Amino acid sequence: MELWYTQPQTDNIRFSIKVKEELFSGKSPYQQINIFDSDEMGRFLIIDGIVMLTSKDEFIYHDMIVHVPMATNPDVKKVLVIGGGDGGTVRELTRYAGIEKIDMVEIDRMVVEACQKYLPLTASKLNDKRVQLHFENGMEFVRRSKEKYDLIIVDSTDPIGPGEGLFTMEFYKCCFNLLSEDGILVNQCESPFYEKNAKEMRKAVKKIKSLFPISKVYQYNMPTYPSGHWLFGFASKKYDPIKDFKPEKWEALGLETKYYNTDVHIGSFMLPTYVRKMVENPE
Amino acid sequence: MELWYTQPQTDNIRFSIKVKEELFSGKSPYQQINIFDSDEMGRFLIIDGIVMLTSKDEFIYHDMIVHVPMATNPDVKKVLVIGGGDGGTVRELTRYAGIEKIDMVEIDRMVVEACQKYLPLTASKLNDKRVQLHFENGMEFVRRSKEKYDLIIVDSTDPIGPGEGLFTMEFYKCCFNLLSEDGILVNQCESPFYEKNAKEMRKAVKKIKSLFPISKVYQYNMPTYPSGHWLFGFASKKYDPIKDFKPEKWEALGLETKYYNTDVHIGSFMLPTYVRKMVENPE
């Protein structure tokens, strides 16, 4: 017997991974969660039918969501992570000795528990002393919180289902208010290639640009996401990720990374012309 | 009825495009050629079951295979293209008024004729006055030729079937000998991500590095190729694609491009750490 997981990346494009076995299947109050094992991609997490991460390429996503803002401002002390239930973002953050506190707000406890059991590769640092887990709606958390953060990372699903609120103007406004005077916001920002993803990307960019003095988009290659060309938004009150970037400061930390390096940092902001145009005119 | 084209990108990964209709199917002495039409990717060319190009993303491949070397040395006058039967590489080359002669060597006349009929988007410039088509084996052409070229572009299929000879030491040596003193070689160089592609990439890089004083690899995002993370090799006798790059010289030409720009040029050489390591130690 052959078992294949298939994701319709658009109505007309399908991506499939041959499965060795299903390790977990659960329906939480929020979403359908599956974890499979495979020869090609190792263990992988599916939420509502969509690839969230695979063991083989998650290093790319987590390197880029964490090290780009942290290398822009290595003095970050307090971090808020919205989403990121698999723990990969927190894992990379905990490598910085200078970070004192990480609040992680994940709506779905089942995601975290399933990943702790079946994806220890990403979830193993969720018990770091500096990490506080909050199982609640990210929108409600940022509306209520009175903390100040140096960095907010929105490690969300697509803007469908529980992730939808994390793409709204109100959410970005609350993030702005929770950020310190030199705070940075990084958000999962979809892709420029397929129309459906590009539309969501443009909507998010338009909102964030209207709020932050510095708003950019950076790219990376994510093999298991539709088209493989994926983006993060970088918004900031003070630091420009290129002009204020001091590669030697990050390199002095001695962190080993498989995807990120200080050249990739710079190159990731060098967008193809068609993407640059979308970001400049996101209407 | 639904018709889907499916490519096994590895033994365990499949990529599928929903097909509107088949426009062409032919078996040449060298390979099986199919052209389909689709809603998502427009018309697309399949050779021996593998995506060669789709109308939606071919601009990325052709921008990067042509404009990176041409922007490194905008004074190129004589070009040799090996492969590239779809005509996209020649199309981009013909936009440079300074190019005086383009020899294109394609083993398979049926590919060219099918593309001229069904893919005029890429094949329309093959009748440019400066272009001379040679329907023969690329290996034999470079072994025999006594010309000198400023640029050789190896726009080949994977190193299986008729493309195999274009990944050999003898082929690269012949290319070296055909290049002028400031000549540049660009070659389709597979991908770092899936093991099978990465192995071929390392083998090609190792051979080319042993011959050329300057040998680099640059990357681009190609949604319909396995993993979407694809590479070209850049080898040269004189010009470094970064140190000798004069963006303003290329910009003065006023060419409009959808993917390439002078920032992307620089960023494309900024490789992720794991790719950099493969290129530095291709054993």
TrEMBL record, chains A, B:
Keyword terms: Polyamine biosynthesis, Spermidine biosynthesis, Transferase
Molecular function GO terms recorded: spermidine synthase activity
Reaction equations catalysed: S-adenosyl 3-(methylsulfanyl)propylamine + putrescine = S-methyl-5'-thioadenosine + spermidine + H(+)
Species: Paramaledivibacter caminithermalis (strain DSM 15212 / CIP 107654 / DViRD3) (Clostridium caminithermale)
UniProt gene name: speE
Boundaries of every PABS domain copy: 2-237
The protein's assembly and partners: Homodimer or homotetramer.
Pathway membership: Amine and polyamine biosynthesis; spermidine biosynthesis; spermidine from putrescine: step 1/1
Residues annotated for spermidine binding in this entry: H62, D86, D155, S156, T157, D158
Xref: PROSITE patterns: PABS_1 (PS01330), PABS_2 (PS51006)
Enzyme type, top EC level: transferase
Role description: Catalyzes the irreversible transfer of a propylamine group from the amino donor S-adenosylmethioninamine (decarboxy-AdoMet) to putrescine (1,4-diaminobutane) to yield spermidine.
Protein name stated in the entry: Polyamine aminopropyltransferase
BP GO terms, sorted: spermidine biosynthetic process
Protein family (similarity comment): Belongs to the spermidine/spermine synthase family.
Entry EC no(s): 2.5.1.16
Active site per UniProt: D155
CDD domains in UniProt: AdoMet_MTases (cd02440)
Entry GO terms, CC: cytosol
Pfam families documented for this protein: Spermine_synt_N (PF17284), Spermine_synth (PF01564)
